[in-house]
Design goal:
mainly beta
């Protein structure tokens, strides 16, 4: 393992693989009974029981708008159903019932088709937050630090509306632990941005954490102590960001030569899909999401290119 940044607190020997044969397990959640629910390309959702049994939900093959369903973010709902952010060509937010029926949930907002729906999050008060990476077509045209047309959307009792339309490839978003703010991964500007969230929407925009070479922040989630954990594709790094913005490198398996290839493509304006769906010699599969066990002692990592969920300890002698 080659490090570009400071030494990580964990190594590959701390990583356990859970499940096998998963298809694009980009998004991962921990359910109340310890079951993992994971996005599954071309169908909907996989479930991995605590004993390791894998089941699937959704039509096979699943089509969204006549095109293959490619779930990116998934959001479990209280009734056992799921909302799915479809980053496939059909776009939109889709509803997957407990029985496996797939139906459109939200396809456009303010006349804008949600063609690159990236992430969806349901919160206990009934609001749903959605990110759309870009309104550019094809979406690969926005693989640049010079394009900022991603959306943040909220859906509540008043309907769906756009909160921000100038995000540099909008990826996952999360409410701050006190509920007064929203943080958003801006993948191609290599930062996590924080907004204050009030009755009139988002304001007081500022950078919460800035990253550097090889880091393209994707999945984010707060732990019980208020630290934000950030997965980085390409560099295959996992960061923990303290409330004051200081960063700790938790895990890394970075292929320097592959990072050089991607960074050169980005600088020359020719970055494409292949730069996210290849990993060089990294064995982490482009880690793209994170979820925590109920006791907070374990983190689970989803990925773009892996076929398993990765499990790591979050409380060891190295991590305080």
């Amino acid at each position: 393992m080659s490090n570009i940044s400071s030494n990580p607190l964990l190594s590959l020997s701390d990583v356990t693989r859970i499940g096998q044969g998963l298809e694009r397990p980009e998004s991962v959640h921990v359910l109340a009974d310890g079951t993992l629910s994971v996005s599954r390309r071309g169908q909907g959702v996989n479930f991995i029981s605590p004993s390791g049994v894998i089941t699937a939900r959704g039509p096979n093959p699943a089509l969204a708008g006549g095109k293959e369903l490619i779930p990116n973010g998934i959001a479990p709902l209280a009734d056992g159903s799921y909302l799915i952010a479809n980053i496939g060509e059909g776009g939109g937010i889709w509803h997957l019932s407990p029985e496996g029926d797939l139906t459109p949930h939200l396809m456009e907002v303010d006349g804008i088709h949600l063609a690159a729906a990236n992430f969806v999050m349901s919160v206990p008060d009934g609001r749903t937050f959605i990110t759309v990476s870009t309104v550019s077509q094809p979406r690969f045209a926005a693989y640049s630090d010079k394009v900022a047309d991603g959306l943040v959307i909220v859906m509540d009792d008043m309907g769906a509306r756009i909160l921000a339309d100038d995000i540099c490839f909008a990826n996952e978003c999360r409410l701050t632990p006190d509920g007064t703010g929203l943080v958003v991964s801006e993948t191609f500007s290599r930062r996590v941005t924080r907004f204050d969230l009030g009755p009139n929407g988002l304001n007081n925009r500022r950078t919460f954490a800035q990253f550097g070479r090889g880091d393209f922040p994707d999945g984010i989630r707060f732990d019980a102590a208020g630290h934000l954990w950030v997965t980085s594709i390409v560099g295959n790094r996992l960061w923990r960001v303290a409330p004051d913005g200081s960063k700790t490198l938790i895990l890394e398996d970075c292929d320097d030569a592959w990072v050089d290839t991607v960074e050169t493509a980005l600088a020359e304006g020719r970055m494409g899909r292949e730069h996210f769906y290849e990993t060089g010699n990294s064995r982490l599969g482009n880690i793209a999401s994170i979820a925590f066990s109920a006791d907070g002692n374990t983190a689970y990592l989803g990925s773009l290119c892996g076929t398993s969920i990765l499990s790591i300890p979050t409380h060891t002698g190295n991590i305080t």
